[in-house]
Fold this sequence. Notes:
By secondary structure, the chain is of the alpha+beta class. It has 5 helices and 7 strands; from the N terminus they run E-E-H-E-H-E-E-E-E-H-H-H. The protein is elongated and about 115 Å long.
Amino acid sequence: MQIYCIDLAGCTLAIAVIYGWTGGGKGTPDAANADDLIAIVRMQLQQLDEGPKLIAADLNGATEVFPSLQAMLKDQGWHDVGNVEDKCCKGKAGQATCHTNEGARGTRIDYFFANSILMPAISLCDVDHTSSFSTHRPLRIEVNTEKLDVVANQLHKPTNYAELFEEKVKLEYLKREQAAAANAASEGSSTDKKDAITENDFRKELKHELHKLMDEQIEQRQHRLKHAKFMKDTTRI
């Protein structure tokens, strides 16, 4: 059993490959062992991020003999791709994949199982009956990557707070000067530049207010910061 992750049109496709025990008849120990593999794969795939997932399996048995697989197909949004008519070549679903010899009846023991995210992007599933392999026939699928939902994370440059602060200083200082001039005009007096606060003094005044607000906000979050540190949760920090 192996799980491979590949980049597919900007998203990650996880593919689990399973080879089941030979002779996986219903109720046999071999079928139970193969079912354990399926259960393990199911749990491992659930640990991965949400996205397209595929299981490529030579189970050496029919799907109905594996309870874990039946649960995935019936209740967890998985699909037996080779058994879906509108996905199969010429609508021929459930084609045999294994021929032990020319005279033997073919059996279907090789599968692709796709989750609900990958399934809409699968445009074709077929068995290559022209191959020269002696026993198993290659099972193939075609995936239309344009139909996959791609989740892209775009990083943004952090806001330069120093520049915003300077903009606020200039804007608020201009408002203060205009208000002082308006008051002086309404009172019929002139503004005394000796008593007027300078832009640098005003900047210090705003910075003092900023630090006061920052201290208050940090104080309100002390317990959350300590908890994040204890949990080693850098995102929360």
